[in-house]
Amino acid sequence: METVKVYSSFSEFYPYYLTEHGRPINHYLHFVGTFFVIASFIGGIVTQNGNLLFAVPFFGYGFAWFGHFIFEKNRPATFVYPLYSLGSDFVMFWHILTGQINKKMEEAHKIVGIPNKWK
Length: 119
Fold this sequence. Notes:
By secondary structure, the chain is mostly helical. It has helices at residues 10-19, 24-47, 50-72, 82-97, 101-112.
């Protein structure tokens, strides 16, 4: 049985989170899902459309889990660290949006101590 590392802070967790999203297709699927989460949440509030709000978790988890199970072949960190993972989705979204993702991925792999086989 695999031992689960205990993270006591978001700053400790985020590098691990990034290494679990090594394939670019996976972190870009997360980006698309997070974009739809933000858009459907704002759209649901502005238009008072409950269906858009109902769709929020399906967008977020749907794209992310597809990336993990189909491309990355790993278990989403959400299952063990739901709040850190949620926060990490938004931070990774920002890093992709601002063009920092490659640098952050390299830093994360060095911190965690595993090579980045997808660079």
